[in-house]
Amino acid sequence: MPEGPAQLTILQLTHQGEGAGSTQSIFSLSRELAHRGHRVLVGCPAGTLLARSVAATPSLEHVALDFSHFRNVANTIAGVIADKRVNVANSHATGDRRALTFDLGRVEAAPSAADLRLAQSALGDSGRPVVAVVARRKDQQILLRALPALERPVTVAFVGIRADAELGAAQAAVPDRHRIVFVPFTEPPRALAFYRFATLAALPSRIEGLSQALLEAMALGVPVIASAAGGNAELVRPGETGLLVPPLDPAAWTRALERMLGDDAFRARVARAGQTLVRGEFTMGRTADRTEVVYREAIASR
């Protein structure tokens, strides 16, 4: 590991802080780094889910940032870096995915009976395979446009969004043999309950970092289909740990769904391989180790 101070003062920065996967990633990683003895400040908008989580964690410090005024937020960040003697600042827009993670402990926690009832009630009891899409607004309309050509009836649950005009138009063309469910944003533990009923998880998107949704689904042993975009290829090895689909291609999504839903043995095999990969390579401890290396490399290169 590159030389540097034993204890770092780290400033984590994000303009988000609500229901995106990055929120949980930043919080979990910050908490682990603080546990290792580093001073960790988290800069994000006041009043967000992340700000509240940081405020409730004594080992972390919140820095309120207003990203609506660029010059003001830049001055605030510069002041914090000088006053707190920050060694390294992470904007969480890096392409170096060694510093990205998910919270395995949260995933392993058993959903409450209330959360399971909520998920089961939303999904209904139709006997159809369940395709779970746990994500904020991405390219869910592409998955909807794939359904008319899919003969096998399915229930598709979009967890984390409401139907907007584009999604409503795409849903109107979906045949009655399929069931579509929209579940507005809910706290992450409740969202994870939907994976307990999922036949597979899907992530249609054209831009992606290292997806929390994929990490969590794979950790729980749910087979995945994802767009071939961003960091998805680091998790989904086609035919081995899941399936990758060209972004914005409904016909390709139809073929992927047919393959995954039509082959129980294949589905079980990629689920096992995906779970082994994620639980072996993306644990919090291993990611924190890699993150410390990344940060010390950045300090040494100045």
Provide the gyration radius in Å.
20 Å
Oligomeric form: single chain
Helix content, binned percent: 40-55%
CATH class of the largest domain: Alpha Beta
CATH topology of the largest domain: Rossmann fold
Mean pLDDT: 90
* Strand order in the largest sheet: 7-6-5-8-9-10
Task: Kindly report how far apart the N and C termini lie.
Answer: 16 Å
Write out the CATH superfamily name of the largest domain.
Glycogen Phosphorylase B
Largest sheet: 6 strands, parallel
Note the beta-strand portion: 5-15%
Question: Total number of β-strand segments?
Answer: 10
Low-pLDDT runs of 5+ residues are 94-101
Structure write-up:
The chain has 302 residues and is of the alpha/beta class. The chain has 2 domains: 111 residues, Glycogen Phosphorylase B (Rossmann fold, 3-Layer(aba) Sandwich); 177 residues, 3-Layer(aba) Sandwich (Rossmann fold), CATH 3.40.50.2000. Helices cover 44% and strands 15% of the residues. The strands form 2 sheets. The protein has a 6-stranded parallel β-sheet, sandwiched between helices. Strands 3-2-1-4 form a 4-stranded parallel β-sheet, with helices on both faces. Helix 10 links the parallel strand 9 and strand 10. Helix 1 packs parallel to helix 2 and helix 1 packs across helix 13. It is elongated and about 60 Å long.
